[in-house]
Design a protein that fits this description.
- The structure is a homodimer of 200-residue chains.
- Chain A contains 9 helices and no strands.
- Chain A starts with a helix and ends in a 5-residue tail after the last helix.
- In chain A, helix 7 crosses helix 8.
- With 200 residues, the first copy, chain A, is mainly alpha-helical.
- At the A-B interface, helix 1, helix 6, helix 7, helix 8 and helix 9 of A face helix 1, helix 6, helix 7, helix 8 and helix 9 of B.
- Chain A binds a DNA duplex (30 and 30 nucleotides) through helix 1 and helix 3.
Chain lengths: 200, 200
DNA sequence: TCGTTTATAATACGTTCGTACGTACTTATT
DNA sequence: AATAAGTACGTACGAACGTATTATAAACGA
C-alpha cells in the first residue's frame, strides 16, 4: 500500500466534501478555490493539487454530494419492500435530510440544478444525470406500487415521480427561506395525500 | 419635463431589463456589470451611472423582472372571474411564459430564489417578497374556488397554492434541462388533475 | 542507498471583478 | 450669459479570481 496515495485520496474526499457543503449555499459557480481552502485550513494550491481545475472540483463536489445523498436517503430505503413502502421511506428520508441540514444550504442537487439548468457543459450534464436517476428510482417504485394496486394507475408513474420531486424541491426552497419546519411537514402531508388516492 | 432625467429613466429600465435577462441564465450573483454593459453596447461606467452598486443593479433587475412577470402572467388573468377560472388562467399563462422563453433562462424568480435562499440580505428579501405575493395570489383564488364549491375544501388553500407553485417550478427546471415542451404539458395535465377533485 | 514519485505548499502571473474619480456633453435654472 | 444638475464615458485601482511554476518533505521502488 502506498501511504502517499492513501493520504491523497483522503484529502481529495475531504476537499470534495467541503466543496459540496459550500456549493450548497453559494452554488457551484460562485464557489471559489480560496473559500474551500480556507474552510479546511489548507493552502489554495493544495486544493489545486487535489483538483487541478475548478471544473474538476465542481465535478468532485457533485460526486461527493451524490455519495452523501445516497447514503442518507436511498440506502436506508432498501430496508423497505419495493412499491409504496419504499416510496414512503424515500420521501420521508428526503424530508428528514433537509430538516437535518445535511448540507448547510439545503439540498445540493436542487440548488445547483437550478443554477446550471441553462448553462451547457459537463457540470450541468452530471447534475442532470443525477436528477434523471433519482426520478427513475421514484418512478420504478410507483410502477411497483401501481401493479400491486397500492396506488391508482393514473396519472402515469413518471408523472407521479415528477410530482413528488416537485413537492420535495419546493419544500427545500421554503425551508431555506423561512428556516422553520412547517413547509416540510406540509409537504409530508401533501405527498401522503397524493399517494392515498387508491383508497377512494 | 426634464429631458435629462427622462433619458436616465429609459436607460435605467433598459439596463434593468438586460440585467434580468442575463441573471435568469447565470443567476444574480454570477451576473457582472461588464456583461450587462457589453450586451447593451454601452460602457461599464454607464451601467454604474444607472445603478451605483451591484446590489442596486440586482434589486433593479428583480423589480424589472417582476414587472415583466406581472404583465405576462398576472394582468391577463384579470379577464377571468376569480376562483377556478382565474386560477386556470394564471397557471396556463405561467406555463406559456416559460414555453415562450420570456426570459432566456426560464423563470427569473425560480432560478434566483434557489440561488439566494440561503444567503441573507436585501436581494433574498426582495425575492422572497415576490414569492410570498405570488403564493398569496394563488391561495386567494383557491379560497374563492373552494367557497364556490369548484374545488374540494381539503387540502388547505395555501397547501394547494404551494403544490401548484411546486409543479410550476419543476416544469421550469425540466424545460430548461431538456429543452422540449413535454414537461410543460405534463405539468398542465397534473395541475388540471389536481384541481378536478371536486368532480368525483 | 539512491533516484523517483507523490502530497503539500509558497509564490507569481494575467485576467476580471466591483468601485472610485475626473471629464466631456447635454439640459435646466437663474 | 452664467451656473447648476445629470448622463455617459474613459481610466485607474485594489482585491480576488483561476491557473501555472517551482520548491520542500515524505514515502516508495530499485
Amino acid at each position: 500500500m502506498d501511504r502517499r496515495r492513501e493520504r491523497g485520496e483522503i484529502t481529495r474526499k475531504t476537499v470534495a466534501r467541503q466543496a459540496a457543503a459550500i456549493a450548497s449555499v453559494t452554488g457551484l459557480s460562485s464557489m471559489t478555490l480560496a473559500t474551500v481552502a480556507e474552510a479546511l485550513g489548507i493552502s489554495k494550491s493544495s486544493v489545486q493539487a487535489a483538483y487541478p481545475t475548478k471544473q474538476d472540483l465542481q465535478l468532485g463536489a457533485i460526486a461527493q454530494a451524490t455519495e452523501i445523498f445516497v447514503a442518507q436517503v436511498i440506502t436506508p430505503s432498501f430496508e423497505q419492500p419495493e412499491g409504496l413502502p419504499r416510496l414512503r421511506a424515500l420521501t420521508d428520508a428526503w424530508l428528514d435530510y433537509i430538516a437535518q441540514r445535511v448540507f448547510p444550504g439545503g439540498c445540493f442537487m436542487v440548488s445547483n440544478l437550478n443554477d446550471f439548468d441553462s448553462r451547457p457543459g459537463e457540470v450541468r450534464d452530471a447534475l442532470a444525470r443525477g436528477r434523471k436517476g433519482w426520478l427513475a428510482l421514484l418512478a420504478r417504485q410507483v410502477v411497483v406500487a401501481q401493479t400491486a394496486g397500492e396506488v391508482a394507475a393514473h396519472p402515469t408513474a413518471s408523472m407521479r415521480a415528477f410530482e413528488i420531486d416537485a413537492l420535495l424541491a419546493a419544500a427545500n426552497l421554503a425551508h431555506n427561506l423561512t428556516d422553520d419546519n412547517t413547509p416540510i411537514e406540509t409537504t409530508r402531508e401533501l405527498i401522503a395525500l397524493r399517494l392515498d388516492d387508491v383508497a377512494r
